[in-house]
């Protein structure tokens, strides 16, 4: 009897040990990369475009988590930055130290990007920025582990100025020195950086800058700014803002009778057409916006042939998640495309060539990405400025385009190589803000 | 002379009038909060969030149920009044005798609850009522009817509250209880009922502010952040519980913001307004209209 009991115990022990061993070995075999994804899902920035960015990144991550990448499973852990830089930093640290993620991806707001990038670099973790554009994130920082395939803020500002400079004589009938421009912006890292590009572009073109001013995106009243704009009488207003402040400014501009020839927006709130339309009605007609091209507007014929089916997939998934949207926001495609570049260009190379997903392997793989124009869904190529350069980690081949909203559709109007139609410039007579 | 004319240009007049109209918006917000401050002596940190809930109520009643704005407004005022009474009954009443910091923390908690509730229930999207009021044009100057409405409503509400407080038995009881909470109970006044009425009235004023703000601003769960802090500063500047002081402080604050923003960067307008607040706290710590003891 005692022997039988001992045998049973012995068998039990063997089974338990085998089971534990199997589990351990299964765990050892299952290779995965844990990606911490941070966007603003609550707070004012969520509705200003961050939630759409999250949707785009998530569509792509969900797609890739269905399969392996070079034997590695994709596990995404999502966090909400709540539209606050301190929360973004805390969440980044939590994901790195507690959730043990291998890297971070995302980030909508430049005000969050600047401090988070510094902290992540300090911790020697890999960071892939899909969205925020401020040059201050990377300029003269010489980071090793922070990469941004997205265009930088001053490029946005320069692009819209270049567009107006090339059209000043033909459309406004004015020499550049006679063209009056106003540069207004929210006073965060994003607005300041785009305005810096605007100013550089205006000086290069020889425009007369009649007003340059920043304001807080949460200011409850912008009527004094509108009064100043009325006094300055600009032909073109270059505006960088998030969504609540854009609608407040333009509503107060209408109420106070501000007139101008063209309004140039620069991403963020200007990229969410549905909200602009809801807040401003038909006044949003003929407004311009600089952003990376919407993946649904990009020239698919000039693209790598494997990209159009991905664009279609992102569109279909987006329609399932957000049915009834008139214009699919550029925000969605931006995050989807930049996430796709990481998942198809950086990650496989890091695993195959550098043996894993540690920060150094990912960094080396990122530095080797060399996509020509047409190599991404956003139309531009990817090649990062190398270490030791002033913009280390910034994609040197990215560029935004200028689009114009016309009758509930958006058209690329600049640069000429991407243009889908001639721009309507200046604002036609009879429209709310027209100074004609 | 030329410089004088340039300084007093038409844009200055427009900025002054816009300052007055912004003052109307701020006065409307400060009125209800002052009532609560003055009578119940509790800081409703979540006051601007009650306004936010009211704005959502207006949005849904008008947009989703297709009910006219003028019918939706009284429904919203009633709804937020009930919310104010509920807030008192569930959160404030149990803490009436607790230290002020506990009351502050409790209403601070309600602020986060309301913000989170709105985020979960309504999402993070900005919503717009879609009503575009005409513009009043006076020569080269243009003024928003929505702001004129707020200004008029603030004036009327101020007079109505004043008459209610001075000409009715309940109003007199409210004023009396604000002077001595303990003694009124001994004189047969039902303090709990008075508190409840005051909270409902404060809520109704928040509802009224919501009806008018929804014409000017997008609704989102964090809209209160734009108004909450400034409303508190105005109440303190005017003297806690002092309606007329709060009313005047609203216009002083708004004019500093408007004129400061016109002659300097917009943000300097706010800096000057806050600097003025700090200086006044040294000179008149009990508020603009406080009597010297």
Describe the structure.
The complex is a heterodimer of chains A (436) and B (293). Chain A folds into 2 domains: 31-151 and 300-367, Response regulator (Rossmann fold); 154-291 and 400-414, Rossmann fold (3-Layer(aba) Sandwich). Helices cover 44% and strands 16% of the residues of chain A. Chain A has 12 helices and 12 strands. In chain A, the strands form 2 sheets. A 7-stranded mixed β-sheet of chain A has the order 7-6-8-9-10-11-12, sandwiched between helices. In chain A, helix 2 (44-65) links the parallel strand 1 and strand 2 (72-80). In chain A, helix 2 (44-65) packs across helix 11. Chain A starts with a helix and ends in a 22-residue tail after the last strand. By secondary structure, chain B is mostly helical. Chain B has a two-stranded antiparallel ribbon. In chain B, helix 2 runs antiparallel to helix 9. The longest helix of chain B is centred in the first third of the chain and has 31 residues, at 10-40. Chain B is globular and about 60 Å long. The mean pLDDT of chain B is 86. Chain A binds chain B through residues 41-44, 46-48, 51, 83, 187, 213-216, 218-225, 227-228, 230-231, 243-244, 247-248, 251-252, 254-257, 275, 278-279, 281, and chain B through 9, 11, 14-15, 18, 21-22, 25, 119, 123-128, 130, 132, 135, 137, 140-144, 146-147, 216-218, 220-223, 225-227, 230, 254, 257-262, 265-267, 269-270.
């Amino acid at each position: 009897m005692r022997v039988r009991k001992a045998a049973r115990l012995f068998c039990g022990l063997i089974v338990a040990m085998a089971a534990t061993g199997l589990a351990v070995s299964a765990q050892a075999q299952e290779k995965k990369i844990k990606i911490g994804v941070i966007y603003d899902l609550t707070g004012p920035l969520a509705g200003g475009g961050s939630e759409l960015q999250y949707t785009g990144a998530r569509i792509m991550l969900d797609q890739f988590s269905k399969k392996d990448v070079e034997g590695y499973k994709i596990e995404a852990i999502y966090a909400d930055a709540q539209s606050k830089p301190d929360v973004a930093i805390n969440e980044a640290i939590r994901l790195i130290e507690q959730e043990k993620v291998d890297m971070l991806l995302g980030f909508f707001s430049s005000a969050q990007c600047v401090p988070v990038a510094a902290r992540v670099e300090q911790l020697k973790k890999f960071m892939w920025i899909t969205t925020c554009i401020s040059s201050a994130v990377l300029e003269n920082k010489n980071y090793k582990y922070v990469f941004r395939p997205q265009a930088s803020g001053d490029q946005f500002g320069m692009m819209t100025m270049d567009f107006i400079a090339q059209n000043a004589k033909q459309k406004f009938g004015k020499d550049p020195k006679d063209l009056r421009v106003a540069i207004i912006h929210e006073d965060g890292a994003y607005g300041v950086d785009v305005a810096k590009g605007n100013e550089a572009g205006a000086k290069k073109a020889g425009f007369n800058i009649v007003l340059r001013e920043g304001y807080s995106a949460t200011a409850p009243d912008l009527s004094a700014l509108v009064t100043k704009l009325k006094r300055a009488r600009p032909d073109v207003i270059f505006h960088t803002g998030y969504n609540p402040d854009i609608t407040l400014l333009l509503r107060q501009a209408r109420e106070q009778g501000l007139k101008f020839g063209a309004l140039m927006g620069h991403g963020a709130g200007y990229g969410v057409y549905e909200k602009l339309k809801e807040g401003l009605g038909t006044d949003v007609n003929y407004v311009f916006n600089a952003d990376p091209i919407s993946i649904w507007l990009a020239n698919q014929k000039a693209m790598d042939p494997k990209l159009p089916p991905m664009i279609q997939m992102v569109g279909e998934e987006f329609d399932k998640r957000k049915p009834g949207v008139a214009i699919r926001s550029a925000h969605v495609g931006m995050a989807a495309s930049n996430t796709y570049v990481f998942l198809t260009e950086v990650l496989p190379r890091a695993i195959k060539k550098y043996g894993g997903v540690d920060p150094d392997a990912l960094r080396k793989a990122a530095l080797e990405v060399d996509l020509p124009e047409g190599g991404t869904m956003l139309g531009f190529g990817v090649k990062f400025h190398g270490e030791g350069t002033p913009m280390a980690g910034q994609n040197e081949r990215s560029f935004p385009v200028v689009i114009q909203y016309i009758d509930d559709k958006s058209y690329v109007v600049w640069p000429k190589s991407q243009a889908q139609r001639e721009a309507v410039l200046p604002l036609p007579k009879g429209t709310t803000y027209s100074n004609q | 002379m030329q410089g004088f004319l340039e300084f007093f240009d038409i844009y200055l007049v427009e900025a002054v009038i816009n300052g007055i109209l912004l003052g109307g918006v701020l006065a409307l917000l400060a009125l209800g909060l002052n009532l609560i401050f003055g009578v119940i002596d509790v800081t409703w940190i979540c006051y601007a969030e009650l306004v936010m809930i009211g704005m959502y109520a207006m949005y849904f009643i008008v947009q989703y149920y297709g009910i006219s704005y003028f019918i939706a407004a009284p429904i919203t005022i009633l709804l937020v009044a009930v919310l104010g009474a509920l807030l008192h009954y569930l959160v404030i009443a149990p803490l009436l005798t607790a230290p002020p910091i506990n009351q502050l923390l409790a209403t601070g908690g309600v602020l986060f609850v309301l913000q989170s509730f709105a985020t979960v229930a309504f999402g993070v999207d900005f919503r717009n009522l879609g009503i575009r009021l005409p513009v009043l044009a006076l020569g080269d100057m243009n003024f928003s009817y929505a702001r004129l409405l707020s200004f008029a409503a603030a004036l009327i509400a101020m007079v109505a509250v004043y008459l209610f407080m001075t000409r009715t038995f309940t109003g007199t009881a409210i004023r009396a209880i604000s002077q001595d909470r303990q003694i009124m109970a001994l004189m047969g006044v039902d303090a709990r009922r008075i508190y409840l009425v005051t909270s409902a009235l404060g809520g109704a004023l928040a509802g009224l502010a919501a009806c008018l703000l929804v014409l000017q601003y997008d609704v989102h769960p964090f809209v209160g952040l734009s108004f909450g802090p400034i409303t508190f500063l105005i109440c303190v500047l005017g003297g806690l519980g002092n309606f007329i002081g709060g009313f005047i402080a609203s216009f002083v604050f708004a004019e500093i913001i408007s004129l400061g923003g016109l002659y300097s960067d917009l943000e300097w307008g706010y800096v000057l307004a806050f600097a003025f607040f700090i200086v006044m706290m040294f000179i008149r710590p009990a508020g603009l209209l406080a009597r010297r003891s």
